[in-house]
Amino acid sequence: MKLEIERPAIYIGIDDTDTLTSRGTGHLARLLAADLAADHTLLGVTRHQLLVDPRVPYTAKNSSAAIHLGRNGHVDLDELARRVRETMAEHFNPGSDPGLCVAQGVPPAVAAFGQRTQRDVVTQADARTLAADHGIRLAGLGGTEDGIIGALAAVGLAASGSDGRYVLVGRSRELSGLRPVADVLDAGITQVRTIKGRTISEGLVLTDKLRPARRGAQPIAVVEWCREPYADWTGGYWLPLKLD
């Protein structure tokens, strides 16, 4: 069964939750998603790459994460934010600078902010002012609170629909090895296509660590043809690309 993307979505952005010796922000995002899935429609978790620059403090690769929830009926965003904050507090890593953002109906200005964090240095004041102007819930949860920048950026980039890649969507993480295209689609990927946009409907896809791109607000497996042997298979297969 193909995953149906529901709109309008609720986005939860987190960043700077880790240290050099702890599990990463993506791991915490998946943990939060698993908890929230009990009461909400989980659409996926995406990773978003931000600016890598000596002027920007970050732990490893300066990426933030966004959890996507379907909005089925009324959702109390204050209660949702409180629930996420409690879980993040339970998993707080001393020395980290976590930030949290919760929003729905994300305005273009926030998406533009996310794009700006990918090319320029921005400040906490920039993030706080923008969030306040649009009534978006944004909070620092420890340390320097620098994570609010990436948390707001993650929400904006996720809402833009065409940035980042899914670290969790449908049953994609359950796949491994070479699988038919049909299996990939059944696991919750909307489409398999080449970098030039050609739709792939047949053949085998290497699904180890499959991380589909978020394009057009959909999980898209972007692939290229590979002739390198895999295990005992020498017939060629589609190799997924990891796109930001």
Explain this structure.
The chain is an alpha+beta fold and 244 residues long. The protein has 2 domains: 9-165, Alpha-Beta Plaits (2-Layer Sandwich); 170-240, no CATH class. The protein has helices at residues 25-36, 77-90, 108-116, 124-133, 147-160, 181-186; strands at 9-15, 41-49, 63-70, 99-104, 137-140, 165-168, 178-180, 191-194, 204-206, 213-215, 218-226, 237-240. The strands form 3 sheets. It has a 6-stranded antiparallel sheet, with helices on both faces. It starts with 8 loop residues before the first strand and ends with a strand.
**Number of helices, counting only DSSP H or I runs of 4 residues or more:** 6
Q: Write the CATH fold name of the largest domain.
A: Alpha-Beta Plaits
Give the N-to-C terminal Cα separation: 26 Å
- What does the overall shape look like? globular
CATH architecture type of the largest domain: 2-Layer Sandwich
Mind telling me the CATH class of the largest domain?
Alpha Beta
